[in-house]
């Protein structure tokens, strides 16, 4: 292993030198890169030879000699320790980046070598050198123990060891999740430790980093830890965060950024419940932790994720097993000879067997009805790896069922077929349902043909008024032959007035009684209204809930036109009849030149009185009459109304220049007139028509002779 490690270091020497220079510059080193590389190139070569086993002096011995030379030349003693630390950190960084297969073992070997070297340095210097001994040795021990950490809690225990020794009250390790741009987005508490009490933020607590003001503080310093001596006075915290931290009893804090290849992986946070002054050795330890811990944290996260995936896979397998055991489909597995190796409860139930009867039985002989066909199926499974189709299966009682089989060939680790698994779904009822469905489809096809060829409009809409179907006759009726009916709503072919009536009157009836019928109007695309006869029915789903509405509409334009024509003819007939009756009820008889006779029969009401007046005046005008004889022989009753009408008629005739004579006044009529106090003294009244005619002729100077 040492020889392989030596070869790897030698091959990556340039990268190690570059990493060392970067590390030194981060700590304020001002010497040229070439000088710094030359200073450690010899120790690296010595380390390689030591690992190869052909060095004259070992690496540890070389470190001892360098330390003694530093003392003799009054060189600052920190130079040796820092150089030693720098070489170790540089090698770790390159090794963490390259990730050789022996990474964990090699880190342990290097840790032991550099730990021994630090002990030699401390021994040569002859004093405690807290940094070299408690610091440098601590780093090597931390590096070694980090590789052995098997949990986030153990990782934190190693990481926080220097802080705990320095009296830290609480420590926590946070994992960081990045967004798509590679920026820190979420932090999750992976492990936490504190001296007493329950942690405020337990393991698993997640923080959305953009919402925390102190996020920018540690983001701005990815290469160095943040050491806050007194939170209450430090200017890097905003008031809210300072209040929260001091409210939790925190006064000092160290935030160790953990990055791997420039990518954030986590944070180490150590806090004290009192003001804490950090000495030089502590500062150097925390600075070293920044580069030392990141690979271990990333490895731990990978392991945690892997363990979580395994746990989830285990749960998934258990869930899958439960699904297989409880699925209604029959699931079974046979070996390559067709012998049953597994059957779920549904398999046994479907074929009518007990569990113990299934295992070990021949699948083909016991359950397959058509053995020859199944042989073809099995051949396809072997050739293609799977097969799906319908087979007939035998049940224990001799009955048969139709089953949809999905068969899959299973392979062993060497890629050789080892078993055949399959699931069977009983489709016997489905087949029956398919036959019934085909019958219903056939009926529906015939019904659709009828609806598509009928001259009446047939349509269906949902409960919101959206058209689901409309036959061609309906589309033609509303003038929308080229439109997709499913893009229409009921309001598209009804006027606003009719639409309102449908919503307020017709639909409530449909919802209550299941149907409505009557006459209404459709709105044609050109804006004209079409009178129609309509039936609306309610369609319910399987649960009896309203699902849609169907309607049948018939154009009754011609019917309405014929009805109007019939009403017109009927009116004309009635008018003709009325005129005939009127003419009969108010006849004008020109008996001689300038003499008219109007015999009245029946009751004289207001309407008839007006007709009598109009007819009489027209007759006077037409025949240029001078004398008019009103014969009321046929009028049974004369009251004040009749008398008043006759008076008005006589007065109107007088205005036309005609003299009026009333004849046919019966005894009863005469008594009534006297009893009512009607004054006819100014009117010429005679006993009968004959007397009236004679009087009329005499008035005109005409004498009758025998």
Description:
There is one protein chain. The protein is α+β, with helices and mostly antiparallel strands and 706 residues long. It folds into 5 domains: 2-148; 152-304, 2-Layer Sandwich (Beta-Lactamase), CATH 3.30.450; 327-426, 2-Layer Sandwich (Beta-Lactamase); 454-555, PAS domain (Beta-Lactamase); 586-699, Transcription Regulator spoIIAA, CATH 3.30.750.24. It has 25 helices and 21 strands. A 6-stranded antiparallel beta sheet has the order 3-2-1-6-5-4. Helix 4 runs parallel beside helix 6 and helix 5 (77-98) runs antiparallel to helix 6 (103-125). It is elongated, with a radius of gyration of 59 Å. The termini are far apart. Residues 127-132 have low confidence and may be disordered.
Give the key terms.
21 strands, six-stranded antiparallel sheet, Beta-Lactamase, five-stranded antiparallel sheet, elongated, 51% helix
Question: Approximately how much helix is present in the residues?
Answer: 40-55%
Strand order of the largest sheet: 3-2-1-6-5-4
Count of β-strands = 21
What does the radius of gyration come to? 59 Å
Mind describing the biggest β-sheet?
6 strands, antiparallel
């Amino acid at each position: 292993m040492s020889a392989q490690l030596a070869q790897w270091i030698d091959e990556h020497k340039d990268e190690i030198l570059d990493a060392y220079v970067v590390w030194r510059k981060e700590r304020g080193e001002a010497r040229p890169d070439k000088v710094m590389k030359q200073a450690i190139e010899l120790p690296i070569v010595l380390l390689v030879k030591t690992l190869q086993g052909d060095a004259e002096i070992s690496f540890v011995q070389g470190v001892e000699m360098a330390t003694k030379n530093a003392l003799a030349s009054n060189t600052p003693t920190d130079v040796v320790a820092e150089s030693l630390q720098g070489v170790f950190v540089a090698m770790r960084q390159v090794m963490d980046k390259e990730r050789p297969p022996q990474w964990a073992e090699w880190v342990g070997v290097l840790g032991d070598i550099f730990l021994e070297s630090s002990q030699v340095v401390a021994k040569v210097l002859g004093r405690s050198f807290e940094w070299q001994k408690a610091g440098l040795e601590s780093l090597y021990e931390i590096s070694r123990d980090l590789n052995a950490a098997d949990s986030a809690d153990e990782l934190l225990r190693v990481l926080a060891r220097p802080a705990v020794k320095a009296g830290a009250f609480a420590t926590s390790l946070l994992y960081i999740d990045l967004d798509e741009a590679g920026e820190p987005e979420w932090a999750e508490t992976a492990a936490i430790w504190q001296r007493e009490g329950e942690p405020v933020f337990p393991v698993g607590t997640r923080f959305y980093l953009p919402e925390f003001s102190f996020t920018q503080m540690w983001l701005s310093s990815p290469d160095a830890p943040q050491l806050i001596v007194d939170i209450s006075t430090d200017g890097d915290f905003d008031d809210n965060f300072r209040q929260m931290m001091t409210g939790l009893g925190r006064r000092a804090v160290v935030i160790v950024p953990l990055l791997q290849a420039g990518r954030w992986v986590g944070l180490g946070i150590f806090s004290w419940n009192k003001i804490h002054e950090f000495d030089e050795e502590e500062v150097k330890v925390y600075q070293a932790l920044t580069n030392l811990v990141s690979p271990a944290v990333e490895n731990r996260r990978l392991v945690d994720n892997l363990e979580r995936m395994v746990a989830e896979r285990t749960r998934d397998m258990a869930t899958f097993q439960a699904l297989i055991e409880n699925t209604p489909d029959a699931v079974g597995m046979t070996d390559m000879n067709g012998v049953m190796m597994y059957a779920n409860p549904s398999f046994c139930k479907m074929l009518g067997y007990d569990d113990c009867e299934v295992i070990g039985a021949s699948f083909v002989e016991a359950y397959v009805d058509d053995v020859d066909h199944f042989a073809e199926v099995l051949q396809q499974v072997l050739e293609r790896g799977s097969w799906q189709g319908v087979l007939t299966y035998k049940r224990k009682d001799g009955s048969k069922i139709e089953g949809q089989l999905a068969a899959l060939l299973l392979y062993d680790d060497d890629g050789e077929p080892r078993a055949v698994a399959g699931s069977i779904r009983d489709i016997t009822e489905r087949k029956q349902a398919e036959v019934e469905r085909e019958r219903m489809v056939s009926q529906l096809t015939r019904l659709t043909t009828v609806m598509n060829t009928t001259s009446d409009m047939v349509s269906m809409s949902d409960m919101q008024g959206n058209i689901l179907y409309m036959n061609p006759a309906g589309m033609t009726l509303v003038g929308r032959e080229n439109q997709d009916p499913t893009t229409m709503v009921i309001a598209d072919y009804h006027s606003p007035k009719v639409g309102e009536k449908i919503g307020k009157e017709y639909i409530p009836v449909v919802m209550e009684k299941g149907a409505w019928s009557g006459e209404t109007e459709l709105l044609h695309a050109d804006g004209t209204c079409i009178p129609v006869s309509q039936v609306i029915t309610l369609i319910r789903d399987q649960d009896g809930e309203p699902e849609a509405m169907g309607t049948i509409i018939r154009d009754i334009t011609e019917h309405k036109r014929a009805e109007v024509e019939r009403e017109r003819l009927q009116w004309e007939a009635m008018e003709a009849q009325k005129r005939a009756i009127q003419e009969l009820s108010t006849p004008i008889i020109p008996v001689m030149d300038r003499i008219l006779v109007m015999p009245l029969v029946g009751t004289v009401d207001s309407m008839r009185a007006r007709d009598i007046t109009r007819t009489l005046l027209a007759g006077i005008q037409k025949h240029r009459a001078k004398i008019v004889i009103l014969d009321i022989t046929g009028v049974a009753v004369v009251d004040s109304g009749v008398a008043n009408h006759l008076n008005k008629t006589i007065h109107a005739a007088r205005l036309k220049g005609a003299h009026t004579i009333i004849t046919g006044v019966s005894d009863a009529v005469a008594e009534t007139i006297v009893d009512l106090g009607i004054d006819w003294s100014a009117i010429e009244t005679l006993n009968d028509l004959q007397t009236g005619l004679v009087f009329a002729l005499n008035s005109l100077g005409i004498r009758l002779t025998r």
